[in-house]
From TrEMBL:
<dbReference type="Pfam" id="PF00728">
    <property type="entry name" value="Glyco_hydro_20"/>
</dbReference>
<dbReference type="InterPro" id="IPR029018">
    <property type="entry name" value="Hex-like_dom2"/>
</dbReference>
<keyword id="KW-0326">Glycosidase</keyword>
<comment type="similarity">
    <text>Belongs to the glycosyl hydrolase 20 family.</text>
</comment>
<dbReference type="InterPro" id="IPR015882">
    <property type="entry name" value="HEX_bac_N"/>
</dbReference>
<feature type="domain" description="Glycoside hydrolase family 20 catalytic">
    <location>
        <begin position="205"/>
        <end position="531"/>
    </location>
</feature>
<dbReference type="GO" id="GO:0004563">
    <property type="term" value="F:beta-N-acetylhexosaminidase activity"/>
</dbReference>
<feature type="active site" description="Proton donor">
    <location>
        <position position="348"/>
    </location>
</feature>
<dbReference type="InterPro" id="IPR017853">
    <property type="entry name" value="GH"/>
</dbReference>
<dbReference type="InterPro" id="IPR015883">
    <property type="entry name" value="Glyco_hydro_20_cat"/>
</dbReference>
<feature type="domain" description="Beta-hexosaminidase bacterial type N-terminal">
    <location>
        <begin position="79"/>
        <end position="198"/>
    </location>
</feature>
<protein>
    <submittedName>
        <fullName>Beta-N-acetylglucosaminidase</fullName>
    </submittedName>
</protein>
<dbReference type="Pfam" id="PF02838">
    <property type="entry name" value="Glyco_hydro_20b"/>
</dbReference>
<dbReference type="InterPro" id="IPR025705">
    <property type="entry name" value="Beta_hexosaminidase_sua/sub"/>
</dbReference>
<keyword id="KW-0378">Hydrolase</keyword>
<feature type="signal peptide">
    <location>
        <begin position="1"/>
        <end position="31"/>
    </location>
</feature>
<feature type="compositionally biased region" description="Low complexity">
    <location>
        <begin position="43"/>
        <end position="67"/>
    </location>
</feature>
């Protein structure tokens, strides 16, 4: 696909160069300052060319009237959007701008699929919407291409003959084409003549939000969804259970729910908006660690060491009641989150921080041997817990995810092959550098804590990430620190998310968080959409983001 894109870019560049050379040798190809050459006077009684005004009648009409010249235009430039379009074939023409009688048109055959996209764009551009007539001059037409006509989420936007046509192999691709048009009209008032061919380099692109440690209102989350959609981001991770709080209404275990929290009605509204914006919401109930909110209501499930000391946030995974409770929650929330992915957590299980987990937690060591054989250890029991939770969500069609420090090496039990590793650290107990995960064939999502972790209050040496660092230094290949993994592993890196963690919840308000992530999120969107070095420098990119 990348070779094909390069070939098309070479063809587009050659076409543009040839057109420029022709402009040097052919008369009438130099544009006036307003991009249209002023027409010669039109004799009386002769119709004006389209887009020109008739000149006053000459005092002595000539015997043979010369035809009015056709307006001439400079070769167009690519739209300037965030993220930048990957390919633009320039052309000469007036481009397109919204007019009073212009419409957004969806063919009747595509109405069921694209009516939402059409109505949204029509509202944003203050145009009419119709799905019952053919496109005419001045309109924007949205249509699905033939099955297999392009990569998932890709689109083609053609501006020609006074109209815009956006097509894609799926609804998401067409939607992203409308985001490009919306941004360019917002920036320049019009869309340039020519053809955009565009699509993402990575399938997973998004934002991770910790609502467990800090309550965020439903309205604030919905605003972030709209912001994400305009940046062509397609995934919102929702971490709603932790030691501090459990933030979504529960029918099976109302005793664990914190105040304030999201109601199920609010969650349905969030997921419905996300679906319309082609964003998947990825819920996370973190276990077997980070369950302090659950343990406050169920202290009998608390993990204790050999001396009887409680282990913060950790349930006793040798106790079947702990698994039953977590599975009841998973099954309750599966219908509430109808997306593709489910995050199981699995990070920072504090039993494994001890120097000798077998001696410190004899009940866990015994349970591991009973289930997995005489050489099994506590880490094997933790891996078995992860696989068991994956087995709960998998039959519902969910793809399981877990934090990379929940994948242990050298045990008798291995994590299921289909669990995606969300890579954030190589420093935690059990965590390894990125290469071992990739070498074993694991699919990975990038949440590099050096560049992509926005931790409220900046504890534990975290610093608020800047858009400039992400834009200038980071790529999806940079999974840990600032060193990229070899490019041959690129197909296994599914994408990246920018993460908001609320360790010190009072350090910033909702409004401050929104302002703080604006530029970093835009920079991430650029780098995960197109992994190539950006064509404009940071100052120009920031100016564009500020304008849009």
């Amino acid at each position: 696909m990348r070779q094909y894109d390069h070939a098309r870019r070479r063809h587009s560049t050659a076409t543009a160069t040839a057109a420029a050379l022709l402009a040097l040798v052919l008369p009438g190809c130099t544009a006036a300052p307003d991009n249209t050459r002023a027409p010669a006077p039109t004799p009386a009684g002769t119709a004006s060319a389209p887009g020109t005004a008739a000149a006053p009648a000459a005092s002595e009409p000539s015997a043979a009237a010369a035809p009015a010249p056709t307006p001439s235009y400079e070769l167009s430039s690519a739209p300037r959007t965030v993220p930048a379009v990957r390919e633009h074939a320039p052309a000469r023409g007036p481009g397109w701008r919204p007019a009073a009688d212009a419409r957004v048109v969806v063919p009747a055959a595509d109405s069921a699929a694209l009516a939402d996209e059409g109505r949204l764009l029509a509202g944003e551009l203050r145009m009419q919407f119709t799905d019952s007539s053919a496109a005419r001059s001045g309109d924007v037409e949205l249509a699905l291409g033939a099955q297999g006509s392009g990569a998932p989420e890709s689109y083609t936007m053609t501006v020609r003959d006074g109209r815009v046509r956006i097509t894609g192999p799926d609804e998401a691709g067409v939607f992203y084409g409308t985001r490009t048009l919306k941004q360019e009209v917002a920036r320049a008032g019009s869309a340039p003549e020519g053809t955009v061919r565009d699509g993402p380099a990575h399938a997973q692109r998004g934002l991770n939000l910790d609502i467990a440690r800090k309550n965020f209102t439903a309205a604030w989350i919905e605003d972030r969804l709209r912001q994400m959609a305009d940046l062509k981001l397609n995934q919102l991770g929702l971490h709603f259970s932790d030691d501090q709080a459990f933030r979504i209404e529960s029918d099976t275990h109302p005793e664990i729910v914190s105040t304030p929290h999201l109601t199920k009605a609010e969650v349905r509204r969030i997921t419905a908006l996300a679906a319309r914006l082609h964003i998947a919401v990825v819920p996370e109930i973190d276990s077997p660690g980070h369950l302090g909110a659950v343990l406050r209501a169920h202290p009998d499930l608390q993990l204790r060491d050999a001396q009887g000391k409680a282990v913060k946030g950790a349930v006793d995974i040798a106790n079947p009641a702990a698994a039953r409770l977590v599975d009841e929650l998973l099954r309750e929330y599966l219908p509430l989150f109808p997306g593709t992915f489910w995050h199981l957590g699995a990070d920072e299980y504090q039993a494994l921080v001890y120097r000798d987990p077998q001696a410190s937690f004899p009940q866990l060591a015994r349970a591991a041997r009973e289930r997995f054989g005489p050489s099994a250890k506590v880490q094997d029991l933790a891996t078995g817990w992860l696989n068991d939770r994956a087995a709960v969500v998998r039959p519902a069609g969910r793809v399981p995810k877990a934090w990379n420090d929940g994948f242990f090496a050298g045990g008798v039990v291995q994590p299921a092959a289909d669990i995606q590793a969300e890579y954030w650290t190589g420093r935690e107990i059990g965590a390894r550098p990125p290469l071992p995960y990739l070498e074993e064939g694991r699919k990975v999502v990038n949440l590099n804590d050096e560049y992509l972790y926005y931790v409220l209050g900046e504890p534990n040496d975290f610093a608020y990430p800047t858009g400039q660092r992400i834009y200038e230094e980071w790529t999806p290949l940079v999974l840990r620190g600032s060193t990229p993994v070899p490019a041959r592993y690129a197909p296994q890196i599914l994408g990246a998310r920018f993460a908001i963690w609320c360790d010190l919840a009072g350090a910033q308000t909702q409004e401050q968080v929104a302002a703080g992530i604006r530029l970093p999120l835009a920079a991430l969107a650029q780098k995960v959409w197109d992994e190539r070095p950006p064509q404009q420098d940071w100052a120009a990119f920031k100016t564009l983001v500020d304008r849009l």
